[in-house]
C-alpha cells in the first residue's frame, strides 16, 4: 500500500517559505518550473470563441446612428412578440407556470434530456400516423436555439458543410462557424413567394455536405412552403442522402388562407431532426423551452445519433425544470381562441403593412403567409444617395425614428425586414413614416423630377 510522507526540506532554522512535498513510497517528486518554460501570463480567447460571430449584432452595433429626437422610436427590428405588451400569452399558460412553481416539485435537476413525463407530453402533442413519435424521440432543450445547436453538433464535423437558406436566420451561420462547420447558401426566390431554388440548392451538395436546414414558416421571410414544394425538397434530400434539420419554431403559425405541413409527415425515408419550442406560438421566448423531435422511421440515424444527442444534452443538464413541469397543461390546455386571435392580429398587421408599402415608390414588399415578418425589397437605383440597404435603414432611423433590420443581416442585401407584432396604430404610423422617407429620397428615371413610378 502506498504511503504518503510530508517532508520538510531545510535545516534547523526554517526558510521563510516552506518547501513541502508529498512523496509516494518515500520518493519525493521533483519540484520547479517545467523545462524551458518561463512563467508569464498568456491568457487568450479560444479559437471557438473567435469563430463565433453574430452578423446582426455586428451590423446593428456598427450603425452608430441616433433616432430623430422629435419622433418617438418605432422598433420593427426585434423578433420578440412580447416587447410592446400587446400580445400576452394565454391565461392558461400563465396558470400552468404558477401551478408548477407552487407545487415545489420542479426545483431540482431533471434528466439532461428532460423529464420522461414531459417528453411524453411533447411526443403525444406532435404524434400522428404519418410521423409517429414516442418519448424516446424527444429531447427537451433550452430554447429552440439550443435545439438547433445540438442538431448541428450531432450531424456535422469541423470541415464538413451544411446547406442554409438565403435569406435566412443568421444563427445558423453563427453556430456552424463556431463549430468549425462550413456554410453554403441556397437561394430563396422572392418572385415565387420565397420558394427554394431547388436546382441551385442541389448543385451545392458535395461529399462533405452533412445536412440541409429547412426553415418553414420562415424567418425573415414570413413565407410558408406548400405541400408540393416540401415534397420536392424531400426528393432532393432523398436523392443526395442528406438528413434535414427542420427549424419549425413557427409551426402552425400560418394565416387563415394557408395550410402548414410539417416535413416529417411527408417524409418516407429522409431522417429529420425537427426543432421547435414554446417561444413564438405561445409568445413566451424568455421561458427558454425548446425541443428536438427525432423522425427516423428507416433507422438511418440509428442508435449512434440518439446516444450522441444524449451526450451533447449533458453539457448543460437540461432546460428549466419549472417550465417542464408546466408543459403538460400548456400543450393540452391552451385555448384554440388564443391561437386564432394571435394569428388574426398578425395577418391584419401583415395585410396593412403590405398594402401600405406596396403603394410606396421604390419599395417592393413580398406578401407573407405566416410567422411574424415581412420582407421589403428596395429598388436601390431609385435611391442613389444610399450605397446599400444598411445605409438606407440607417437614414430611416435618423430621419424617421423607424428601425427595420437591413437584410444584409440575413445575407440578402437591398431588402429590409419588418416585424409585424407591434400594435396596429404603431404599424400604421411606421408605414406612414417609411412612405415620407421614400418620397423624400426617391429619384425616378433619367430626367424625372416627380414621384411617378410603376406599381
Quick structural overview:
This protein is 35% helix and 16% strand. It is α/β, with parallel strands linked by helices. Helix 3 packs across helix 11.
Give an account of the 3D structure.
This protein has about 450 residues and is α/β, with parallel strands linked by helices. Helix content is about 35%, strand content about 15%. It contains 14 helices and 16 strands. It has helices at about 45-50, 55-60, 90-105, 115-125, 145-155, 170-180, 200-205, 225-240, 265, 300-315, 320-335, 335-360, 390-400, 425-440; strands at about 5-10, 20-25, 75, 140, 160-165, 180-190, 195, 210-215, 245, 270-275, 290-295, 365, 375-380, 400-405, 405, 415-420. The strands form four sheets. It has an eight-stranded mixed beta sheet with strand order 4-11-10-9-8-5-6-7, sandwiched between helices. It has a four-stranded antiparallel beta sheet with strand order 12-13-16-15. It has a two-stranded antiparallel ribbon with strand order 1-2. Helix 5 crosses helix 6 and helix 12 runs parallel beside helix 14 (about 425-440). The longest helix is centred in the C-terminal third of the chain and has 23 residues, at about 335-360. The termini are far apart. About 40% of the residues are buried.
Amino acid at each position: 500500500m502506498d504511503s504518503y510522507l510530508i517532508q520538510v526540506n531545510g535545516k534547523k532554522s526554517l526558510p521563510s517559505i516552506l518547501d513541502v512535498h508529498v512523496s509516494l513510497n518515500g520518493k519525493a517528486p521533483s519540484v520547479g518550473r517545467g523545462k524551458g518554460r518561463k512563467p508569464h501570463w498568456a491568457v487568450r480567447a479560444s479559437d471557438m470563441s473567435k469563430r463565433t460571430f453574430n452578423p446582426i449584432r455586428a451590423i446593428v452595433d456598427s450603425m452608430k446612428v441616433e433616432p430623430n429626437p422629435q419622433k418617438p422610436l418605432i422598433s420593427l427590428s426585434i423578433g420578440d412578440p412580447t416587447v410592446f405588451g400587446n400580445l400576452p400569452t394565454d391565461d392558461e399558460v400563465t396558470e400552468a407556470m404558477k401551478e408548477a412553481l407552487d407545487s415545489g416539485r420542479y426545483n431540482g435537476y431533471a434528466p439532461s434530456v428532460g423529464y420522461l413525463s414531459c417528453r411524453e407530453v411533447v411526443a403525444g402533442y406532435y404524434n400522428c400516423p404519418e410521423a409517429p413519435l414516442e418519448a424516446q424521440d424527444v429531447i427537451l432543450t433550452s430554447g429552440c436555439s439550443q435545439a438547433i445547436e445540438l442538431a448541428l453538433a450531432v450531424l456535422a464535423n469541423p470541415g464538413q458543410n451544411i446547406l442554409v437558406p438565403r435569406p435566412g436566420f443568421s444563427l445558423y451561420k453563427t453556430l456552424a462557424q463556431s463549430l468549425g462547420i462550413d456554410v453554403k447558401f441556397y437561394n430563396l426566390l422572392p418572385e415565387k413567394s420565397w420558394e427554394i431554388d431547388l436546382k441551385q440548392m442541389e448543385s451545392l451538395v458535395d461529399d462533405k455536405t452533412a445536412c440541409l436546414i429547412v426553415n418553414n414558416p420562415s424567418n425573415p421571410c414570413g413565407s410558408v412552403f406548400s405541400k408540393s414544394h416540401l415534397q420536392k425538397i424531400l426528393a432532393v434530400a432523398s436523392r443526395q442522402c442528406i438528413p434535414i434539420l427542420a427549424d419549425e419554431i413557427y409551426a402552425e403559425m400560418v394565416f387563415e388562407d394557408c395550410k402548414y405541413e410539417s416535413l416529417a409527415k411527408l417524409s418516407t425515408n429522409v431522417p429529420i431532426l425537427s426543432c421547435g419550442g414554446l417561444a413564438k406560438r405561445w409568445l413566451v421566448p424568455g421561458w427558454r423551452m425548446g425541443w428536438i423531435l427525432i423522425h427516423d422511421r428507416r433507422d438511418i440515424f440509428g442508435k449512434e445519433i440518439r446516444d450522441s444527442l444524449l451526450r451533447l444534452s449533458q453539457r448543460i443538464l437540461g432546460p428549466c425544470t419549472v417550465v417542464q413541469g408546466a408543459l403538460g397543461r400548456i400543450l393540452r390546455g391552451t385555448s384554440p381562441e388564443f391561437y386564432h386571435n394571435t394569428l388574426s392580429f398578425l395577418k391584419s398587421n401583415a395585410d396593412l403593412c403590405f398594402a401600405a408599402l406596396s403603394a410606396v415608390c421604390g419599395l417592393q414588399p413580398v406578401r407573407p403567409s405566416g410567422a411574424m415578418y415581412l420582407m421589403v425589397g428596395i429598388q436601390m437605383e431609385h435611391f442613389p444617395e444610399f450605397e446599400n440597404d444598411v445605409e438606407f435603414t440607417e437614414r430611416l432611423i435618423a430621419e424617421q425614428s423607424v428601425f427595420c433590420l437591413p437584410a444584409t443581416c440575413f445575407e440578402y442585401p437591398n431588402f429590409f425586414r419588418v416585424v409585424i407584432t407591434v400594435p396596429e396604430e404603431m404599424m400604421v404610423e411606421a408605414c406612414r413614416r417609411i412612405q415620407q422617407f421614400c418620397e423624400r429620397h426617391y429619384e425616378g428615371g433619367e430626367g424625372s423630377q416627380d414621384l411617378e413610378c410603376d406599381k
